[in-house]
Specification:
alpha/beta, 2 domains, Dihydrodipicolinate Reductase, domain 2, elongated, 9 helices, single chain, Rossmann fold, five-stranded mixed sheet, about 270 residues
């Protein structure tokens, strides 16, 4: 049986991953880690996840428990995720990274380190969201420049980065399909007398409120009609299940950097 080491084991996503792993027969909990000083460090991983005793103690350093697993599932923090990838590359363990908010320098570091091991990274591990990326690519290519493109994303009040990594990925998919450079035409705020909308721009608007798990709406606005593609996450379990699916997939792959499009076989469908 494949064993997974879960980082960020005391966080919202980490706890759900642990709980779902405990229900599986094809993958199990091999280890767990949290940042130093976290109140769950030194305690049984199942306590915080509400699944009872597992016999797995949460460590404060991934290096102390990575040998106990075949693959790391990482939902920690963008800075910590890069360090975790370094440890995984050094020890030859596969890793699935679901953290967001990476700086350009951190993204370059991930691309440098990933070829030394097997790494899946994606701003959103949801199967539905990744199918949506494919649908957006197809729609943008068909609708072309005659439709204005806007993205509206909404998340809970505790989310620290904006726009969401998922919204940025959607914007990159759309810009690529339309032959545009997102760095040049991305619009992240509108206020005051801004003039009429320019044709090539792609708007990304952010909402933060309450306990919204995640909503992404992409609007293709034409003259006389509007097409909207919407994904709503009702719980974090869909992200956790996607991450576990990625972990099961990546352990047997050749070394390299992958994303959820690879995991789901969506790249094989073409455009």
């Amino acid at each position: 049986m494949i064993k997974a080491v879960v980082t960020g084991a005391g966080g919202r996503m980490g706890r759900r991953i642990l709980a779902l792993l405990a229900e599986r027969s094809d993958i199990s909990i091999g280890g767990a880690a949290e940042q130093a000083g976290h109140p769950l460090v030194g305690r049984d991983a199942g306590e915080g996840a509400g699944i009872g005793k597992t016999g797995i103690v949460i460590r404060e350093d991934l290096a102390a428990c990575i040998a106990d697993g075949d693959v790391v599932i990482d939902f920690s923090h963008h800075e910590a995720s890069v360090r975790h990838l370094e440890i995984a590359a050094r020890t030859g363990r596969a890793i699935v990274i679901g953290s967001t908010g990476f700086t350009p320098a951190e993204e370059r570091k991930i691309r440098e380190l990933a070829p030394a091991t097997r790494c899946v990274t994606a701003p959103n591990m949801s199967v539905g969201v990744n199918v949506m990326y494919k649908l957006l690519d197809m729609a943008a290519r068909i609708l072309g420049d005659e439709y204005d493109v806007e993205i509206v994303e909404a998340h809970h009040r505790l989310k620290k980065d904006a726009p969401s990594g998922t919204a940025l990925k959607m914007a990159r998919v759309l810009a690529h399909a339309l032959g545009r450079d997102l760095d040049e035409i991305g619009i992240y705020a509108r206020r005051g007398l801004i003039g009429e909308r320019t044709k090539p721009e792609i708007g990304l608007q952010t909402v933060r409120a309450g306990d919204i798990v995640g909503e992404h709406t992409v609007i293709f606005g034409g003259m006389g009609e509007r097409l909207e593609v919407i994904h709503r996450a009702h719980s974090r379990d869909n992200f956790a299940r996607g991450a576990i699916r990625a972990a099961l997939w990546v352990v047997s792959r050749p070394k390299g950097l992958y994303d959820m499009q690879d995991v789901l076989g969506l790249k094989d469908l073409g455009t």
